[in-house]
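Running this now, will post back.
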Amino acid sequence: MKNEKLLLALLAAVQFTNILDFVIMMPLGPQLMPALGIGPQQFGLVISAYTFSAGVTGFVGAFFLDRFNRKTALLTLYLGFGLGTVACALAPTHHWLIAARVLTGAFGGVLGSLVLAIVGDAVPEARRGQAIGVVMGAFSVASVLGVPFGLLLASRFSWHLPFVLLGGLSLVIWAVIYFVMPDLRGHLSARPESLSERAAAVAGLFRNPSVRAALTLTALLMLGQFTVISFLSPSLVGNVGFANEQLSYVYLVGGALTFFTSPLFGRLSDRHGKVLVFTLATLATIPVQLIITRLGPTPLPLVLLLTALLFAVMGGRFVPATALATAVVSPRQRGSFMSLNTSVQQLAAGTAAYLAGLLVVPAPGGRLLHYEWVGYVAAAANLLSLLVVRRIQPAAAPPGAAVSAPVSPAAAAAAPASQPIGISLEEQVLE
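Update: finished.
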């Protein structure tokens, strides 16, 4: 259990920098667009550059991710991500920034899938919802601390500075992982698969109805979220009347709330069922999105209440959805599947951001027209997700199968008879 907590702490630190690098780009929109001389369509492309790149490399990673020690793969990807973030800090124009975002996304997208694959390997299904809630709590920390601080630095100095500090922090965390994290080889087979065998295995994933449903659910979740989030900050400045400095309050309050709600949604998912919790969170998401995308001048406290609710319910539904996704394949295929899942996630997020950029129209005074159309698209995607989530079924555990995590006697006694009881992290290191 001690090693499990240490592992989760390291993975949460990786996710913190990975998520912050991605999410800080959107609230920087009101500063980036005038600084670089670009409009909503070009800004949507800046966001999409990361996600499209991550989507392509995520698909490629599906063929290789399960062939390596998880630690080696993590160190390689995280180093590339850190260097890409530094490149973003040095970008002088929006064309160079797009190129740097492509580089960062090439490593950052696969990095996210690897983190979730490690959680799936190291934590048994009975506790996996809570563990994913802890790791995804990095979004809360990034929102509470990272985004407001980054916005403050950008408003007082330059939009380049947040990326300088984030790239440096990533390289420090990389060094800690190198010296502290144990090797993770429990997913490796005695005879490494050839590329043709791996390609056949990846192709075989698509014959699984639950895999197809899980990938479809991921696409709908991103379409139902990033269409709205991509232009949330520009709409708050242009339509609601926020000053750039006030944007930090949105992420501070919303992140503080999700710091508590993400683990809560994880515990509720483990206790009451992941489909039920996902359904309730999604039904709560739709009206909040529709209200926010139609806001005009509104008092600050009401806006903070609405955006905090939006962060909480949107983030909350990702916890059970991700827990469901990690269970649709066996541990030996989990890295490949999560890489595919991340590929779909990033491509859908990029499509959502680009679509939103096409729908909204800049108007005099900095206003954004047709932002409510974005809310309608998001609502439709979220309603479809409620149909798809019920088609996801966990993979049947083969006889004698084990997951790579220690289980306490109390947890073992409480687990269903079909629940595999795993090996410890220490045993993985010795394998």
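The domain at 2-186+202-393 is CATH 1.20.1250.20 (Growth Hormone; Chain: A;). More later if anyone needs it.
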